[in-house]
UniProtKB/TrEMBL annotation:
Top-rank taxon, per record: Bacteria
InterPro entries in alphabetical order: ABC1_dom, ADCK3_dom, Atypical_kinase_ADCK, Kinase-like_dom_sf
Source species of the chain: Actinokineospora iranica
ABC1 atypical kinase-like domain location: 93-312
Protein's name in the database: Predicted unusual protein kinase regulating ubiquinone biosynthesis, AarF/ABC1/UbiB family
């Protein structure tokens, strides 16, 4: 594939093949049951083949489809075990892989963005991509001054393809619901669509990365590669080697898991106070642990602008939940728009809904597990339960939407890591409102 399929008709046909393929396999499954195979065996086979097709299509399309798959992938920890296994490998692949564009196409984009003499700016340039992203791919190169650099090149047609994908995916949103139990898929898609135009401009991403790199320069816990050069569809940044979080999730030892989880938590909670921005693309492909033990963070196309740091009411809500102060909690939520005017809710029901989410901050060290995340997802997703009814009655104000999604995504990664993290100390230091006394 040399560039992204642009035509809406072609992309829609590929996306439409997903539900049709699922339906076809379901019919085939009934035939196998009639032939004597057990329901569990058939179900497992259907899950595996569905996952294979689903992520093959999303990965091939790249663009918004792949971006959506990456956003879903961090919620894999919430999927029930019987369904999770076949999806896990496909999701992990999607985080880091997509069919590359040809060297000829890559050179054409580099010429358009860096000038006809682009090759003279590099001492070496590897035409084989080192990695791929949702809207671009990364090449390893040596800058003219000898520095090893990562060159991110945007796929031709990414702009048209992104928005086309997200429009089409919204039509099939119900199909994807099992991948993110307890989370509404349609708002996630809408929010991704709203942010896509920002991510398409690599100059804006480079500016974001410069802010982070300056704030974390010399930090002994976090490394943000410096920007060497940028253009609308190409960025050149310092190259960093490290062990990807996906590899630690797969086979890391206890110490690696705990260190990675702690560093990720510290970065998530501290960066708004330090930069006025929140890194808003939490999936394992954007993080790695360097040989000297730091968390390297990449991909700053999506950020939330938080000039005042993380919103104070979120810390206050967490504290009031842990203290069991249901009346004050509900008053604060009404004031902040989490409960719409005129909506009648029981304060104890609201507390019962929120308190389990605050559990990580209740103890000195919290063990994030897939089991814990599945329990939360099952609790809020149980149509017969009170928590589901309470959740449906609550409102998520627009200014909190991205912060909540990023926090949920980061929590998903912590559960995939199976990490033990000193969350309470981290939140006490960096989350405004949590350590308030009143």
């Amino acid at each position: 594939m040399t560039e992204m399929p642009r035509k809406t008709v072609a992309r829609t046909a590929r996306l439409a093949s997903i539900p049709l393929g699922v339906a076809g396999r379901a019919v085939g499954g009934w035939g196998k049951r009639l032939a004597g195979q057990s329901a569990d065996d058939v179900s497992a086979e259907l899950s595996a083949r569905t996952a294979e097709q689903l992520f093959a299509v999303l990965g091939q399309l790249k663009g918004g489809a792949m971006k959506f798959g990456q956003a879903l992938s961090v919620f894999e920890a919430a999927v029930p075990p019987k369904l999770a296994e076949p999806y896990r490998e496909a999701l992990t692949k999607l985080q880091a892989a997509a069919p590359p564009m040809s060297a000829q196409t890559t050179h054409r984009v580099l010429g358009q963005q860096l000038g006809r003499d682009w090759a003279k700016r590099f001492a070496e340039f590897d035409d084989t991509p080192a990695a791929s992203a949702s809207i671009g791919q990364v090449h390893k190169a040596v800058w003219h001054d000898g520095r090893q650099v990562a060159v991110k090149v945007q796929y031709p047609g990414a702009d048209e393809a992104l928005l086309s994908d997200l429009r089409q995916l919204q039509r099939f949103s119900r199909l994807f619901q099992p991948f993110a139990p307890g989370m509404e898929i349609k708002p996630l898609l809408q929010e991704l669509a709203d942010r896509m135009t920002e991510e398409l401009d690599y100059r804006a991403e480079a500016e974001n990365q410069r802010v982070f790199a300056k704030a974390f320069a010399g930090d002994d816990r976090v490394l943000v590669p410096r920007v060497v050069a940028s253009a609308p569809k190409v960025t050149v940044t310092e190259w960093v080697d490290g062990r990807p979080l996906a590899a630690i999730i797969k086979d890391g030892d206890r110490e690696e898991r705990d260190i990675a989880g702690t560093l990720l938590s510290e970065f998530h909670f501290s960066s708004p106070a330090r930069t006025g921005l929140l890194h808003s693309d939490p999936h394992p492909g954007n993080f790695m642990i360097t040989p000297d033990g730091r968390l390297c963070v990449i991909d700053f196309g999506a950020v939330a602008r938080l000039p005042e740091g993380l919103p104070r009411p979120l810390g206050q809500m967490t504290r009031l939940s842990l203290q069991g102060r249901s009346t004050q909690l509900m008053e604060l939520m009404r004031d902040e728009g989490f409960i719409r005017p005129g909506m009648q809710l029981d304060a104890d029901d609201v507390l019962a809904y929120l308190a389990p989410f605050a559990e990580p901050a209740a103890v000195e060290t919290f063990h994030f597990t897939r089991r814990w995340m599945r329990r939360q997802a099952g609790r809020v997703g149980d149509l017969r339960g009170q928590d589901f009814k309470t959740g449906r009655s609550l409102n998520l104000p627009p200014q909190y939407l991205l912060v909540q999604r990023v926090t949920a995504g980061a929590t998903g990664i912590l559960c995939q890591l199976d990490a033990r993290v000193p969350v309470r100390a981290i939140i006490s230091r960096w989350q405004p409102g949590f350590a308030d006394e009143d």
